[in-house]
Amino acid sequence: MFSVLLLLLVSPALAWIPIGDWESGNVTASEGDSGQCVCHVFLPDTTFPADRVEHMQEISKDLNIEVNIQMNTLVSYEAKLEVYLKDLSQLTYRVNMLESSSDKYIKLDFELLRIELREFEALVTQLKESLNISSPLFDSLYTEIHNMTMIVNQLEIYDKSNLEVIRIEFAKLQKKLEDCQQDQNFKPVAGNCNGTGIMSLSKPHVIQLNAQLASSYVYGGWAKDSKPLRGYESMYVYGAYSTTYIYDFFLYSNYDQLILRAAFQQNHLPNGWRGLGSNFAVRDHSIYYQRNTNEMSKLNITGTKYDYRVISEASSSFSYSYSSNQHLDFAGDENGLWVIYASDESRGKLIVAKIDEKAFGVVNKWSTDVYKQLAGNAFMACGVMYATRSVDLTTEEIFYSLDTRTGEEKHLSIPFQKFQEKYSYLDYNPTDQKLYMYNNGYYVSYNVKFN
Fold first, then answer.
1. Can you list the alpha helix ranges (DSSP code H) found in 370-432?
2. Phi-psi domain of 246 (left: phi exceeds 0; alpha: psi -120 through 50; beta: other)
3. Among the listed residues 197, 226, 223, the one whose alpha carbon sits nearest the alpha carbon of residue 404
């Protein structure tokens, strides 16, 4: 506000008007020393606030963008919820079948149902937390899952004698299969290393969510022994966490125990031996993993004996594109044990090194033309290193190979589907010719077809 002082000479025509009649609103009047009329006028600041209007326009634009994001998120959650409801109805049908003819099912069926119900509970919890709301729809989902769990528990003890007989017969059959596997003539199937390499991968086989049922456990992996001891051909190893550290390795005797999340052994890594990064390999009953930036560690599964070696040139400046701290990548194939890394001298390009398993040291190495930070991951098969990269959100491709036997490099294009966009682990196993992927917390595998 500002004031303007007006000095008006009082004309004879106005001299009769009292001074009090001039005072109104923002105008005040008084009589000067010489008889003149002095008016004080208070006028508002009429400058247009352009900066304020511009600021409000920016805020309005940001709010509009945020509203659109939230609307798209709600549409996405609505689609997910429809899928969950459809799957839940299928589970309801299976429970009804069990309820009508419980004597025709074995204990494993009930365990699998329990696992699926726990997964549904975890998924609904995740969805509810993402939406940050409470509604009758979510409450009804929780109630239905709880009721189905109670029905499964009741059905399992409905005819306990029949289930026990079936369980015994199933155990006998499993024992016969294990005896066949331990026969001296039994040999694990290995990849055909006489051809020209990998030709294609199958569609992803999504097994299930990890052992902790934790969607946040996105760093880690699962694997089989690439050179198993007799009697451990069917063993699986799993280790993961919500950050790029590994605190525990869980061991499962076979695939069914992996599905049931029934580990026969848990190796808790003590202080000073905890894993860093997501890449590890299992070979000859030992787990090879990265301890610090350039330290490769070895854990003997049987005696829980630890050992380590330093690869001095391995750099902490380079990791795969999907996650950090993956400096040493271990792999086991038909030709032995390997470690893949990058160094400052190679300017971030991948280096393949062969490990002497007895001496636990590097005996040979090969340089590549692949920048590690551009690769999604790498693995070994038949002495050939294969590197992958992203094509789009749902497609990955093997784009490069290096044959350590001949030194020949090839640029490839072998596309394959991804279950979800990012993964932290990819490892080939020669005993079953499969690629094992840890894809955003899920166990995923691929069949590998050689040329």
1. none
2. beta
3. 197
Tell me what pLDDT residue 30 has. Answer: 72
Q: Do residue 219 and residue 311 come from a single domain?
A: yes
Residue 232 has φ and ψ, to the nearest 5°, of: -120, 20
**CA pair distance 82, 90, nearest whole angstrom:** 13
The model's pLDDT over 59-92, given as tens digits with 9 standing for 90+, comes to 767 666 766 676 666 666 666 666 666 666 666 6
- Would residue 377 count as lying in a domain? yes
Indicate if 21 and 107 belong to the same structural domain: no
- Can you give the residue range of the structural domain that contains 35? 2-43
Contact (CB, 8 A) for 446 and 434: yes
Domain count, the chain: 3
Provide the pLDDT for residue 23: 47
What's the pLDDT score for residue 212? 93
Which tens digits make up the pLDDT trace of 216-266? Answer: 999 999 999 999 999 999 999 999 999 999 999 999 999 999 999 999 999
Contact yes or no for 198/414 (Cβ under 8 A)? yes
Q: How many CA atoms lie within 13 A of 331 on its CB side?
A: 31
User: Does 414 or 176 have the greater pLDDT score?
Assistant: 414
Helix (H, G, I), strand (E, B) or coil at 56: helix
Say yes or no to pLDDT of 187 above 80. no
The reply to whether 418 and 344 lie within a common domain is yes
